[in-house]
Specification:
The chain has 297 residues and is α+β, with helices and mostly antiparallel strands. The protein has seven helices and 18 strands. The chain has helices spanning 45-51, 56-66, 96-101, 160-166, 179-182, 240-247, 268-271; strands at residues 2-8, 11-21, 34-41, 70-74, 88-92, 111-114, 120-121, 126-128, 137-138, 141-147, 167-174, 177-178, 198-206, 218-223, 226-232, 258-260, 280-285, 289-296. Strands 1, 2, 3, 4, 5, 6, 7, 10, 11, 13 and 16 form an eleven-stranded mixed β-sheet that branches. A hairpin with a 3-residue loop joins strand 17 (280-285) and strand 18. The longest helix is centred in the first third of the chain and has 11 residues, at 56-66. It is globular and about 55 Å long. The termini are far apart.
Length: 297
């Protein structure tokens, strides 16, 4: 089951995705593509998760019976799959090859930083980088975990069973970065939170339908059609269940919260090949779809 947040007549709605026409590789822009589906709820997916923290599948099936209107919307009308999560935890240094290319030791604990909802953007939106932040703009293709049910924190950490049950689904994420700003200090926040820069979507695939880590799904990133990243998500140093367990030691995870699990080798910072005006970054995870951003400077 795939659930997306879309804009229909100015209103955010959750749809059950039935199909996608994505023009990747044809030379066409995202405006040429579309998504078809059925309306589940006249609210975004984050609100639907919050309202149904123990049974999203049942809520979707009920919504399809009640509404179920068929719609076709342009790819550019897709919104971030969760538009306003209360928390976004990002993980740095979580694939061994990427850790090595960045010159760091393998960590004993997850390296966490926070991204704010204002940094999220639609899965097929243009990303505008302001003057003064363009020198080392970079991409990071990542697997995102979306929390589906509340998991109380600060109680010694969740069990593996509790953590697995709290994961609602998975999506694709671009942890768009400005490396010169990121490394101004030992804290990375200022290089990771550019407004409307991190493509997130195109939908959430329910965790009980598909586990990309267990399946060894490949994560791939292209820049202008050139493959830059290609790695199995099964090689995460800290997989999703471990991250949920770790974070639950100190923070309560709410429905719609997001954990972005880190990027493999092949980022621009590893080769010195940073993004330029007009570059097109496409990130895909097997079974989860793709996001695509055109960079404007």
């Amino acid at each position: 089951m795939k659930l997306a947040t879309v804009r229909i007549d100015g209103t955010r709605c959750t749809i059950h995705v039935d199909g996608i026409d994505d023009p990747a590789g044809t030379g066409d822009s995202p405006q040429a593509g579309s998504v078809t589906g059925r309306i589940v709820d006249r609210r975004d997916l984050g609100a639907l998760l919050t309202a149904n923290p123990t049974g999203i599948r049942g809520a979707v099936e009920s919504g399809l019976r009640r509404d179920g209107d068929e719609v076709t919307v342009p790819l550019t009308d897709l919104l971030p799959v969760i538009t306003s999560p209360s928390k976004i935890f990002c993980v740095g240094l979580n694939y061994r090859e990427h850790i090595e290319e960045m010159g760091h030791p393998i960590p004993d604990h997850p390296t966490l930083f926070v991204k704010y909802p204002s940094a999220l953007t639609s899965p097929y939106a243009e990303v505008t980088v302001p003057a003064g932040m363009t020198d080392k703009a970079d991409y990071e293709g990542e697997l995102a975990v979306i929390i589906g049910s509340r998991l109380a924190g600060a109680r010694g950490g969740a069990s593996e069973e509790e953590a697995r049950a709290a994961i609602g689904g998975y999506a694709v994420f671009n942890d768009f970065s400005q490396r010169d700003w990121q490394y101004r200090t030992q804290q990375w926040l200022q290089g990771k939170n550019l407004d409307r820069s991190s493509a997130f979507g195109p939908w959430m695939t329910l965790a009980d339908d598909y586990d990309p880590v267990a399946e060894g799904a490949s994560l791939r990133t292209w820049v202008n059609g050139e493959l830059r990243q290609d790695h199995s998500t099964a090689d995460l140093v800290f997989p999703p269940v471990d991250l949920v367990r770790y974070i639950s030691n100190f923070a309560t995870l709410e429905p719609g919260d997001v954990i972005v699990t880190g990027t493999p080798e092949g980022v621009g910072a590893g080769s010195g090949r940073f993004l330029a005006d007009g570059d097109v970054v496409r990130i895909e995870v097997d079974g989860l779809g793709a996001v695509e951003s055109t960079v404007r400077m």
